[in-house]
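Exam revision sheet. Question 4 asks you to relate a sequence to its structure. Input first:
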Amino acid sequence: MAEAPTPNFSSEERARVMAALNAFSLKDCPRCGNSQFGLADGYIQVPISPNPTQMFLGQYVPCVAAYCTRCGFMAMHSAVALGLMQKP
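Answer key, structure tokens:
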């Protein structure tokens, strides 16, 4: 049996991210209507580029992701807009 992965967020960072997300009125899942969400265990980098052939050459949007515990729908939120970090 595979071992559970090591968490990327410390318990303090997880609490900080959850507080930032909970500061907004959370809606039910747009796909299935479920009201329970989990938190992806770490920051996600979404690449941005004016040229699709250069997507991995620099700029990105740092995000956190919440996911529906029923259907898996994911909602990404800018970590900068949530006040979790400064613009890279």
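Marking note for examiners. The mean pLDDT is 87.
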